[in-house]
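Notebook entry, structure prediction.
Reason for the run: the old model in the group folder had no record of what sequence produced it. Starting over properly, with the input documented here first.
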Amino acid sequence: MIQLQGKKGEATVNWFKNLPIRKKLLYYMLFFTVIPIVLVTVVALAVSYHEARDQLIYYHRMSSGWLQDRLNLEMQESMKQIYGFEADKEVREKLLSWCGSDKEITYADSWVLITALNTMISMDSSLNTIELFNYRQEKVLVAKRSGATVEQTGDRLAFWKEHDEALQSNLVYFRTEKEILEVHQIHRFEDNEPVGLMVMHIRPYALETILSEIKTVPEETILVLNDENTLIEADYGEAAGIDEETVEFVRKNLVESEQKELYFDEWFWFYRPVGRGKLQVLVAVPKKNISESLYPTLITGMLIAGIASLAGILCSVGYSAVISKPIQKLSREMQNLKLDDYSGRQSSQRKDEIGVLQESFDRMILRNQELIEQEYQSKIAKRSAQLRALQAQINPHFMYNTLQVIGGMALGHDAPEIYRITLALCDIMRYSLNFSKELVRLEEETEYLKSYIMIQKERFGGRIQLNLELEESTLECYVPKLILQPLAENSFEYGFSNKTGDCVLTVKSRYTPEGDLEIDVTDNGAGFTPERLGEIQEQLRRDTETSLKRNAHIGLCNVHTRIRLQGGQEKYGLTISSRQYQETTITILAKAVKEQGETDVQSSNN
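New structure, fully documented this time:
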């Protein structure tokens, strides 16, 4: 029985594998559209209520935070006004002079204080009156928009005397029938003794506007309390019937538990302290408001789910046909493709992914045809080059034999100098015209340089001196062929051409701490000016092709490029330093290649 079930499962898998792509695509699309829609609909009906509830709570949480920030800004503006008043040196001096003594305030002192208070009133349209109370004299300076007077305190400070002394006195809020009071106690800096009180009478319309703007639903209620838990301002909705005991119970629980939100008695409460408790904000939202708002969402979601399921079935059938046809067509073309007969199709009219796939397939086939043709042409060119190289070998051998004949005739006529020069020239031609090796040992390159210097020595009348200071282990390193002679030739052309006296060319080789090969070629010639040296260095930094087109220091650019190609890194190449009328040094930094096998690999990579 188990075997039968296993075979049945394998048959089902094989049946699905053997289906055409159109039917596979249809089944896949039906599975990944209709089934997820059905599942999402079922799950949505179960969780949509909670999600919508959480979303609305989140909105009220954000609005409560915004109200907290807005009231903080308003409080900061009030503190700026107060501190700006107290920070004025002249105002502070007149205020303490009046509040700290039994003397009557002079006209000049009162004028300074009244001017400062009137400035504050004129800059804030919400300010009705500012009162400055003198504790010592029990007098008050009252500044209004209509004028200012000095009056007796009387019972005006009764509300302040009832204020809990343990609470802060920096900025305290109170509420009268028509105004909001912002109260700030003034202290003497020397002993922090309270000497006066500033009371600003503010119209409540500004705070009312803020509360009305923050409300998201009409049923929402916003309460603003001071640090004594007294109501300062309120914007009531359906919570108008909430009693003070409920408000105090909720506020106390939120403060003591250090939470900001609470669900209590079918209401969602949000608490935010402002200015470290100077003000407290309570926002109340009825639960039924959230529930009622969810009914349209649930009904709409069910309708959309049903429509989406039907649309998913129809679209799956249509898309499977539209998408599979061009893929099947492209598959047949790939099966019947012959590279030698393929000429490419006209540009695809489709601009979607199928069109991109068709165009990419065409480009791939055409590119393969180009690569095959290039490989064929490369083999032909390689054979032609080999034939030309064989033909070119005739001329070098003829030149070697001719130079040997000339050398023999020189010995026959007792001219050993001519024989040595001829022999050196023969060695130079044999070395430079041997194309079988791209890299040679430094020792071979040095021997070639000696032959070249010997000929130049005869040219300069014996004034040329070659000093070789080579580390013995570096002589086994492989370097690109013909890199020393161009550098020496540069010394003869620019350093020794107009020099009198002995001309010394010094060649040094060593290993760097990083294990690279470094070769210095130094002459005691004329050197370069800083401007000319900068031009040469700039030419070496440019591409070789650009430097060759300028026809300037071609030999140096050639050596620089070959060294970098052999090393495979930008750090390799030539650097030049020169002191005018003293010397010029060309430094070669090359990769230290010590094995012929490594040389072959490097050459093939390049």
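Summary: Residues 438-444+451-605 form a domain with the Heat Shock Protein 90 fold (CATH 3.30.565.10).
The old model has been moved to the deprecated folder.
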